[in-house]
Write a structure and sequence with these properties.
Layout (H helix, E strand, L loop, with lengths): L2 H11 L2 E5 L6 H17 L4 E4 L25 E5 L17 E6 L10 E4 L6 H11 L6 H15 L9 H11 L5 H9 L3 H13 L1 E2 L4 E6 L1 H6 L22 E7 L5 E7 L5 H6 L3 E2 L3 E6 L2 H19 L1
Parallel strand pairs: 1-2, 1-3, 3-4, 4-5, 7-8
Antiparallel strand pairs: 6-7, 8-9, 9-11, 10-11
Helix pairs in contact: 2-3, 2-4, 3-4, 4-5, 4-6
Pfam families: DHH, DHHA1
Protein name: Phosphoesterase RecJ protein
InterPro entries: DDH_dom, DHH_sf, DHHA1_dom, Oligoribo/pAp-PDE_c-di-AMP_PDE
């Protein structure tokens, strides 16, 4: 029995299925989570299907979450999508179910769950959910296709990132056959507020780049307050340094109200996920996240990024 078949067998076995994703969601987290929920509702209408977790943080155009009682976890199947490490799962109750399935495309450093399906070659978890549906001949409705397509677009940077494969494009094409408004969806994913646009100007003005292409931008709480921005609104800024020709890898350091820094790392070549793991994070070889508990650690992360770029250039 393949892992896909194991997952479908577990889904058929349980009458109640609760689906989680990671904290601070991106389009792939919501797309894979709620896309799977929509597929299951469409194919198993007799089952109870729930999508749970914290705030969707500006992704309300994709989906919303449901509020459920603790008692519903008793005897339930729980599925977690797009979440590499169990501490990152949004809503700690994910461990209260009868059986747990992990579906993810990040390196499997934390193989939690009774059934673990990890495909690091997939562009996104949404691509994996689409593969599951197509392989197991599950019917997709228009909204499921919209959600999965949105997740793929989000994690591939509109098919620009290296994780995009010919298979990714074939999956996206099959999803487009379900006739949702892809133009509207792309616009919703890409559009930003005027205040974020103004902050992007600050980012370009204050981007520091060394001779080997290591870049950094620090967004202090003072700057965040000046532009009336909260952390969840900075995600659209992360790709911006990558359009500059001499930037090889970069970090966006966002100071939090508590004083630590949320760190988003991106690269065009140097592998950065091991660096992220050293600093309370992880992710993909070219796209990772970490945390710096103070200014000293923040500076150390940038120094390590500089070394990676220097080694890569040699």
């Amino acid at each position: 029995m393949t892992t896909m078949e194991e997952i479908i067998a577990a889904i058929k076995e349980y009458d109640r299925i609760i689906i989680h994703r990671h904290k601070r969601p991106d389009p792939d987290a919501i797309g894979s989570q709620v896309g799977l929920a929509e597929i299951l509702r469409n194919n198993f209408p007799e089952k109870e299907i729930y999508q749970v977790g914290g705030s969707v943080e500006g992704l309300e155009f994709l989906a919303s979450m449901e509020t459920i009682e603790d008692s519903l976890y008793q005897g339930a199947l729980v599925i977690v999508t797009d979440t590499a490490n169990s501490p990152r799962v949004s809503d700690d109750r994910f461990s209260l179910g009868d059986k747990l399935i992990k579906i993810d495309h990040h390196p499997n450093d934390d193989p939690y769950g009774d059934i673990v399906w990890v495909n690091t070659n997939a562009s996104s978890c949404s691509e994996m959910i689409a593969d599951l549906a197509f392989d197991q001949k599950l019917k997709l409705n228009e909204n499921a296709a919209r959600l999965l397509y949105g997740g793929i677009v989000g994690d591939t940077g509109r098919f620009l990132y290296p994780a995009t494969t010919s298979h990714t494009l074939r999956v996206a094409a099959k999803l487009l056959d379900h006739h949702f408004d892809a133009t509207k969806l792309n616009r919703e994913i890409e559009q930003i507020s005027l205040k974020v646009a103004k902050l992007s100007g600050y980012l370009y003005q204050n981007l520091e780049v060394d001779e080997n292409g290591a870049g950094q931008v620090v967004l202090s709480q003072e700057i965040m307050k000046k532009y009336d921005i909260v952390d969840s609104e900075t995600s659209s800024l992360v790709p911006l340094p990558g359009v500059i020709d001499n930037v090889m890898a970069w970090g966006l350091f966002v100071e939090q109200p508590e004083g630590y820094y949320r760190v988003r790392l991106r690269s065009k070549g140097p592998v950065i996920n091991e660096l992220a793991k050293k600093h309370h994070g992880g992710g993909h070889p070219l796209a990772s996240g970490a945390n710096a508990y103070d200014e000293k650690e923040r500076a150390e992360i940038y120094r390590e990024l500089q070394l990676l770029c220097a080694e890569f250039k040699r």
